[in-house]
Design brief:
The chain has 315 residues and is α/β, with parallel strands linked by helices. The protein contains ten helices and 13 strands. The strands form four sheets. It has a seven-stranded parallel β-sheet with strand order 3-2-1-4-5-6-11, with helices on both faces. The chain has a two-stranded parallel ribbon with strand order 7-10. Helix 5 links the parallel strand 5 and strand 6. Helix 4 packs parallel to helix 5 and helix 6 runs parallel beside helix 8.
Length: 315
């Protein structure tokens, strides 16, 4: 039996941001495992499309202290996914970003400790910044170049400070570029893959900034969910990358999308944006050592499958 087998039946679990892309996948998996699931989400970008309707849903924001207290009450495990994730929006509204990504995370850490709940926080590879040595290692000094990345650093600090004083069991997971079904092309600042999938299906040109040879560490959403479940079952009390350790170019991704659509891609190239990171990939040493991942979720076939799921749900 795997050391990560965990009985979720009758467990009271909270997922903030549970109506979002990753949150929906997590909620569906938790329900399939028999957990009692409560979701706190303001539906600013998410939708209540869970496979199982038996979800306790609180429609409110994580910046509401009363809503957060209600959501955490009686929970055994909490997954804190709710965040302001659009880099441009965070730049435009840094105070709002701080309230959501920093203050609410500190509240989540405090309430988890008060309820004796283990906590898993969704952090981001954005904390490494554009000048990070590759692969990005968790021990590296964060050098975020944007308000969003800086806010995730502060959110992590709010949690790790409570871990150090012994009042909280938690894991911060730095997600790289998560991909899978449910990613929407119709929201502001949508991710590139659903936008490209929708464009190819509609025979519209793709807008590529740079030469398309920039690379990312694309993470199938099933790997992200598995990492969260394992971190909840066995809290690491530290920060881990959730990555595959593999770099994939944007052009390679477009080829996968095009094949899945059975249509050629019409690529239009624009000058690279000055703020864009050229290459990104995460070190997976700790992910392998502490959580036994990425295993089958980090293979080229798994990425292709995740991208194909985006395509089949894009139109």
């Amino acid at each position: 039996m795997s050391t990560f087998d965990y009985d979720w039946s009758a467990r009271q679990v909270l997922v903030t941001g549970g109506a979002g892309f990753i949150g929906t996948h997590l909620v569906n998996r938790l329900r399939a495992e028999g957990a009692r699931v409560r979701v706190l989400d303001n539906l600013s970008t998410g939708r209540t499309t869970w496979a199982d309707p038996n979800i306790e849903f609180i429609e409110d924001t994580v910046t509401s202290s009363s809503a957060m207290a209600q959501a955490f009450d009686g929970c055994d495990v909490a997954f804190h996914l709710a965040a302001m994730v659009s880099v441009p929006e965070c730049e435009q509204a840094p105070d709002d970003c701080r309230r959501v990504n920093v203050d609410a995370t500190a509240t989540a850490a405090r309430l988890a400790a008060e309820n004796n709940a283990s906590l898993v926080m969704a952090s981001s590879c954005a904390i490494y910044g554009p000048d990070a040595s590759l692969p990005c290692v968790e021990s590296a000094t964060p050098q975020p170049s944007c308000v969003y990345g800086a806010s995730k650093c502060e959110g992590e600090h709010a949690i790790t400070s409570m871990i150090r004083n012994g009042s909280l069991e938690a894991t911060c997971l730095r997600f790289f570029n998560v991909v899978g079904s449910g990613q929407r092309p119709d929201v502001p600042y949508a991710a590139a893959i659903p936008i490209f999938a929708a464009a190819i299906r509609a025979d519209q040109p793709l807008h590529i900034f740079g030469d398309g040879k920039q690379t990312r560490d694309f993470v199938p959403v099933d790997l992200a969910v598995e990492a969260m479940l394992r971190a909840a079952a066995t809290p690491c009390n530290r920060t881990l990358n959730v990555a595959t350790g593999t770099q994939t170019t944007l052009l390679d991704v477009i080829d996968i999308i095009s094949a899945a659509c059975n249509r050629p891609a019409q690529c239009g190239y624009k000058p690279p944006r000055p703020e864009d990171i050229r290459h990104s990939v995460g070190d997976i040493t700790l992910l392998q050592k502490l959580l036994g991942l990425p295993e089958q979720w980090g293979t080229p076939a798994a990425l292709r499958n995740a991208i194909e799921h985006v395509v089949h749900h894009a139109g």
